[in-house]
């Protein structure tokens, strides 16, 4: 049945070759709920190289061959005999996804339905590697760790072991980077660009120290790192998404010897689809695989990493690495709309922003409300939440309790709702803004649910594309530029928040929002997004689409998005073609309605990538999981 809300909200045009993983998705297009995996319905598309790479990464060996003709299924697909090389993939998928038809669940257009468990990332290869960990009896954390290492290899513009992030396993694990001991609030006053690019922008990485595996993992550490090591050593194909990042930052790629050696060995960027190898990173991963996560912070890897950074002009030392500590604290919890929202507290601020918006909107009856008014109310609530967000910082250094209590307060949400006018918007001062925003960037997100309904929502980042634009020459590690997420005195036109000024071993403010939603004691949803300051926008819009507008999970993620950062006072509407040529556009009627309310409109891009899992808790389908990967970047969720 056609959904008029979705149709009025979105114009989505899909190409049959939209991601590098089209071949994988097409091969499995009709494999949902009981249909067996066969070579039928197979399109010879892009991405076969990386599917073969994941087979090698997982050490799939000596597979038998199919010689069946392709028949039936989707009429847009060719009917031909599957070539011998493709037989490898068919059998690999058979082994990987199922030993019986009813346990096989594969992605259809970015979504999958599964009974036992799901892994959702923006890289199909990494989803498969994570799901393999689940299939071997691993905990959700095992799958998340394996997927994270994979993402750090195959998607190096967004994340990697030289970065950090936040993992939520009902309890939040804060693996956010820390400022080095010699860092100070005035260190970038004379040259702001050094905060953004180069060795001074590097904060102490935290991803490898995440502690989650030692606390929850069932599988051997080595088995989780090995697939990523194999990918780095054997090579993988440059995807549309990675190639777009390379083209966008070509001058920086060519300027750094490490990046240039990998992506432009002959002085020009490698073309789309080229195979790249990270040999030095593979050696580092091999050492971590053998010696455990502690080897990153103490020993040959740590010494080499610190030496490389200092030789390039940075201040990070071996002692800084040795002093890095993961923090495990109580989550931020709030109840609204009959659900319990669990998210990471500061210095991750996106969850608090999302909770306040959802609490404000819960005071409205959305039944029959035009989509234009829904968007207007959401954006107005967002502005109030963003104004409060600027008071946050690292709770180990500043007191954020009062602001947190305000943002999860039902009475405060009701007060802010009374300040929203359904017919017009206001100047930014109306929303209580006092400080300038921190514009963090990049990231990647993964969601995992296992058979016992253990859950992981995890966001990881190098911050900007390719982080500091510096690769450690001896270790091959792509390094973050998280120092760029600190506020700097007297930078910009607005005052900067002292709560987020640089101090030694302080963690910068982040917009990440890994979130788990419960109904009673049962998991209802898992969500998170990539996209820096726009993350709270994306997560909240998807949740509003699902819970308030009753869109299905796939429609909730695919619907075009609106973005606001309070300053500048501009409402950005998505007008975007993804790496795979999908089109995201908002209808003219909606735009005109928002303009009539006083919003200054401007075309925006696909700034956010959202991953979403929903568990059906009612009726005959109770217990089934629907997982969605945002097709703005590509990738596929997998389940079993």
Folded structure, characterized:
With 640 residues, the chain is an alpha+beta fold. It is built from 22 helices and 21 strands. It has a 7-stranded antiparallel sheet with strand order 2-20-19-14-13-10-9. A hairpin with a 2-residue loop joins strand 9 (332-336) and strand 10 (339-343). Helix 16 (350-361) crosses helix 17 and helix 16 packs parallel to helix 20. The longest helix is centred in the middle third of the chain and has 19 residues, at 371-389. The protein is globular and about 60 Å long.
Offer a concise description of the structure:
With 640 residues, this protein is an alpha+beta fold. The chain is globular and about 60 Å long.
List the helices and strands and how they pair.
Blueprint: H1 4-9, E1 11-13, H2 22-27, H3 48-57, H4 84-97, E2 111-114, E3 118-120, H5 124-135, H6 140-154, E4 164-169, E5 171-175, H7 193-196, H8 212-216, H9 221-234, E6 236-237, H10 240-248, H11 250-255, H12 257-263, E7 275-276, H13 279-291, H14 300-311, H15 318-322, E8 327-328, E9 332-336, E10 339-343, H16 350-361, H17 371-389, H18 401-407, H19 410-418, E11 444-449, E12 455-461, E13 515-519, E14 522-530, H20 535-548, H21 553-558, E15 562-563, E16 571-577, E17 583-585, H22 588-596, E18 601-604, E19 609-615, E20 625-629, E21 638-639
Parallel strand pairs: 16-18
Antiparallel strand pairs: 1-17, 2-20, 3-11, 3-21, 4-5, 4-12, 5-8, 6-7, 9-10, 10-13, 11-12, 13-14, 14-19, 15-16, 16-17, 19-20
Helix pairs in contact: 3-4, 3-5, 3-9, 5-6, 6-9, 9-13, 16-17, 16-19, 16-20, 17-22
């Amino acid at each position: 049945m056609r959904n008029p809300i979705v149709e009025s909200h979105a114009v989505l045009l899909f190409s049959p070759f939209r991601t590098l993983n089209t071949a994988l998705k097409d091969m499995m297009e009709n494999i949902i709920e009981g249909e067996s995996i066969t070579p039928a319905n197979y399109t010879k598309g892009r991405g076969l190289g990386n599917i073969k790479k994941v087979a090698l990464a997982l050490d799939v060996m000596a597979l038998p061959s199919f010689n069946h003709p392709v028949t039936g299924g989707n009429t847009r697909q060719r009917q031909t005999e599957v070539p011998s090389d493709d037989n490898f993939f068919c059998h690999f998928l058979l082994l990987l996804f199922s030993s019986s038809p009813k346990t096989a669940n594969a992605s259809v257009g970015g979504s999958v339905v599964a009974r036992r468990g799901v892994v959702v990332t923006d890289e199909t290869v990494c989803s498969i590697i994570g799901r393999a960990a689940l299939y071997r009896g691993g905990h959700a954390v095992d799958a998340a760790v394996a997927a994270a290492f994979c993402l750090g290899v195959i998607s190096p513009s967004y994340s990697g072991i030289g970065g950090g992030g936040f993992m939520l396993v009902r309890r939040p694990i804060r693996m956010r980077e820390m400022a080095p001991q010699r860092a100070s609030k005035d260190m970038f006053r004379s040259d702001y660009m050094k905060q953004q690019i180069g060795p001074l922008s590097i904060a102490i990485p935290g991803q490898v120290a995440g502690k989650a595996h030692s606390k929850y993992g069932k599988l051997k550490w080595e088995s989780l790192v090995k697939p990523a090591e194999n990918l780095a050593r054997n090579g993988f194909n440059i995807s549309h998404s990675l190639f777009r990042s390379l083209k966008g930052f070509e001058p920086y790629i060519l300027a750094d010897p490490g990046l240039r050696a990998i992506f432009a060995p002959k002085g020009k960027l490698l073309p789309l689809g080229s195979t790249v190898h990270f040999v030095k990173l593979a050696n580092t991963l091999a050492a971590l695989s053998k010696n455990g996560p502690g080897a990153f912070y103490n020993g040959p890897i740590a010494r080499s990493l610190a030496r490389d950074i200092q030789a390039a002009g940075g201040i990070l030392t071996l002692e800084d690495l040795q002093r890095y500590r993961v923090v495990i604290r109580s989550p931020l919890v709030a109840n609204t709309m009959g659900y319990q929202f669990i998210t990471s507290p500061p210095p991750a601020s996106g969850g608090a922003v999302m909770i306040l918006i959802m609490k404000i909107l819960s005071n409205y009856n959305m039944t029959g409300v035009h989509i234009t008014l829904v968007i207007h109310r959401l954006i107005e609530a967002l502005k109030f939440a963003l104004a409060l967000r600027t008071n946050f910082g690292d709770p180990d250094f500043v007191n954020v309790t009062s602001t947190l209590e305000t943002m999860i307060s039902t009475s405060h949400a009701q007060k802010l709702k009374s300040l929203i006018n359904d017919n017009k918007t206001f100047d930014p001062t109306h929303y209580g803004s006092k400080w300038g925003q921190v514009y963090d960037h990049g990231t990647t997100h993964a969601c995992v649910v296992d058979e016992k309904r253990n859950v992981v929502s995890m966001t990881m980042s190098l911050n900007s594309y390719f982080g500091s634009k510096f690769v450690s020459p001896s270790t091959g590690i792509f390094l973050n530029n998280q120092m760029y997420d600190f506020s700097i005195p007297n930078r910009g036109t607005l005052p900067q928040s002292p709560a987020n000024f640089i101090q030694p071993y302080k963690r910068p403010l982040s917009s990440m929002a890994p979130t788990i939603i419960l109904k009673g004691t049962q998991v209802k949803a898992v969500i998170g997004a990539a996209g820096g300051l726009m993350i709270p926008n994306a997560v909240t819009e998807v949740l509003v689409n699902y819970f308030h507008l009753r869109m299905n999970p796939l429609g909730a993620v695919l619907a075009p998005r609106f973005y606001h950062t309070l300053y500048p006072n501009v409402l950005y509407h998505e007008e975007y073609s993804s790496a795979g040529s999908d089109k995201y556009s908002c209808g003219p009627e909606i735009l005109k309605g928002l303009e009539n309310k006083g919003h200054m409109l401007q075309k925006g891009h696909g700034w956010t990538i959202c991953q979403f899992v929903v568990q059906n808790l009612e009726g005959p389908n109770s217990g089934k999981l629907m997982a969605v990967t945002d097709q703005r970047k590509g990738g596929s969720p997998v389940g079993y």
